[in-house]
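Here is one chain, start to finish.
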Amino acid sequence: MRNIKELFAEFIQDESGLTAVEYAIAGALVAGALVVAFSDLGKAVGSTIGCLESAVGGASADC
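Its structure:
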């Protein structure tokens, strides 16, 4: 029967679950970047549509 010190040393050396954690972190970073990018894109598109709406309504198109 192995003692607790040997089990702990084996646990520290085991890296089998590390890849899954790395992929989870990378996926979270990509998802966060996409949220920020689409949020900014949405604001820009909204501003452009508002400018076009004003121009169609007869206001000056200084957008």
